[in-house]
Amino acid sequence: MSAFVSRMAWRETRAAWRHFAYFFVCIALGVAALVGVDLFAANLERAIQREARSLMAADVELRTTRPLTSEADGVLMKLDGRGIARMQVSELVAMAAVPSGTQLVELKAVEPGYPFYGKLRADPEDALATLFTGTHALAEETLLIRLDLKVGDTLKIGHAEFRITGVLKKEPDRAAGAFSFGPRVLISRQGLGATGLVQPGSRVTHRHLLKLPEALTPKAVQAELAATFPDKTARVNTYQDAQPILRRFLRQLTMYLGLVGLIALMVGGIGVASSVRAFMKEKLETVAVLKAIGAGSGTILRIYLTQTFLLGALGCLAGAALGAAFQIALPPLLKAWLPIELEFRLALLPFVRGVGMGLLTTVLFALWPLLEVRHVRPNLILRREVADEPAGSPGRMAWAISGLLAFALAGMALWQAGSWRAAGLFIGALAAALALLNATAWLVVRLAKGLSRWRLQASLRLRRGERGVRGYRSPFRGHRSPFRGAHGPPLQVVWRQGLANLYRPGSQAQTVLVSVGVGVMVILAIHLVERNILWEIGENVPTDAPTFFFIDIQPDQHDAFARLLVERGHTDARLTPLVRSRLWALNGQPVRRESYEDREHGWYFAREYVLTFLNELPKGNAITKGQWWEGGGSSGLPRVSVEEEAARRLGLDLGSTVEFDIQGAKVSGRIASIRKVEWGNMSTNFYFIFEPGALEGAPMTYVATTRVAPQEEVSLQRAVVAAFPNVSAINIRAVLDSVAQVVDRISLVIRFMAALSILAGAVVLAGALAATRFRRIYEAMIFKAVGGTRRILAATFAVEYALLGAAAGVVGAGLATGLAWGAGHWILDVKWLFQPVALVWGIGATIAGTVLVGFLSTYRILDQKPLPVLRRE
Asked: Between 20 and 30 A from 111 (CA), which of 418, 636, 662, 791?
């Protein structure tokens, strides 16, 4: 019997291979998306592991934001006697000035021997050696272009002037991030001292790089430093932990892209169900004949299930090959964040996962239409005209098998996402979307049927009123066809027939609505989220928001800096004190940061907090619990106000106590109020604010904010740099432009994957229309026989496709709006802005795309001759 099943499956496939082209493409696209993303992630992880030492430029790195104390320096000096080489690298933001202008730069100061691993690329190649022979610098080409400089020119940073001796091309250990504040400038540690930029409270990152002898393991040295280094806020990492920002960013991005690919696979599954159902409708007579000669339902089911599985396997393998080809497209899109060169290699796991999910999807979506063969009776051969479709439900077995496969598919989604929460959100959102789309599709078909019947009854009543029942005359009789008009086809006939096509026998309206609606939902939701992010960080900047931030103002420069701004007419300038700290204890219990760093939202415990003390409640802040201090001091611990989200994550409430470590000194406070902060107002905002007097004597700097007209920006920057070389000016307009570019790049990558969902939806749409091609030919020939022309047929089809596209577009846009709102509210914490223009464009594009795909799928019908087709029938 197994030979018979295999032979029949092969014969059926060979005879109808064109019918399964859409089936094949749908599965291939979904699997290609999953395999492509997984292969990219695997190759990237392999590249990071391969070049891990280069990405850190050392075996072990100790990172701190504070200068070394004598005790900490003694701990590191003990390493020198054990064959461990070490050097210090400092990174900070500074202003570079030339007579023609200024530019914010990312300054990096290194020592001789840098880097321990990897290679720094510069032009000329020996330019790095010149850094340690005087006040020389290497600069990125971007800086030279912006300031109209060339190699050999000088620029001023802080109190020192540096001669540019080369162009910096690439650093092995530059941290990968979404955006930077400016071009990189590389100088020596000695040159950094000459600038005078490193002051108490300045924002500087000190990296102490260690190169170990073969006898020592990085993990052992990491554990030793973590236990003995006196500054517990310092981070100690090994080269295996290199580029945590890059790893976290790519892990999250590949998870989201993988889920988008999974949506493409689900849409492809709908195409599978549509293709199998249409194929089985054409094979009802064959099934009936097989049953008449003794074949059981189980045997027939195995024949077509084997056929489906084989076709699915071929589609999955083709999709896996296409996913491998995606490696040509994805890396260039992500090149801005990749400090390493990718080498493409095949990995087994992405192929196994993609092919496995593709096969599960194929079987899951094909099972229901295949199980209908059990209800086909042999007498269907003699009752073909009246028993066109099998009757009955799939039964308990189908529900049980489908539940098992769905559970397996959910497990695959969890495997793809890597977290229960993300997988649960994805599965729940997809299930809800499919349920709503199915319900809406059913409702649209019912409404079309009801409206068509109402119009027909109204027309009959009108004709009977004019002629009487006996005198009723068919609209198809007479010397003039109702389809022929002096100015084109009658709109009434076109609209009536196009509407009736939605519910005619064999209509695929529900399948088309679901598949296209899911695709519209995905890509439109991505666009809405992107526009909301850009709106909040850019277009929603308040009209009175500051345009400049001046950082690293020292306490002894406070009054002079304020006078400079007032003399230049900026009386609205605001100077706010900043004190950098680490969270030390909550309610008397010490905070062990290492136990929180790997948790979700664990950075609330492990991050550096910038504290301040203020008399008045900052702009855009509102007290939600407790009260703000109104003059006068408090007895006992100083009063503290905390932002509401930080309070929730840290478990703080009114009366709770917090303790901060400020460069070795401990400062405590008691929570007196909880605030809601408007983070998008572009002002200086804080998680913790102390009452005045609580932080006296703490090392601090000031940040100044002011609003500057565009024509005054350059002159103000020059005046500040000339008077205060250590102060850095951050132009908010430039930062917003940088963020917008980042969002655009990320959106481009996600759109690339989301487009696969739309492509799969288009294939499903074309397959659904092609599946009913023979029925459409017969109906079209009847219209032609009674006087219908190519124009009337084309117009009728266009109305049908436009109605399908409009319904799918409206439902998909509604679901996209809900999905975008949920993602912004629950995940991204982004304000919601309703965007009707984007929704209208999305619906319009859906209608146009549906009409185009529908026309390309059925335009050959218009050229068929009526007589041969009707004779065959």
From this structure: 662
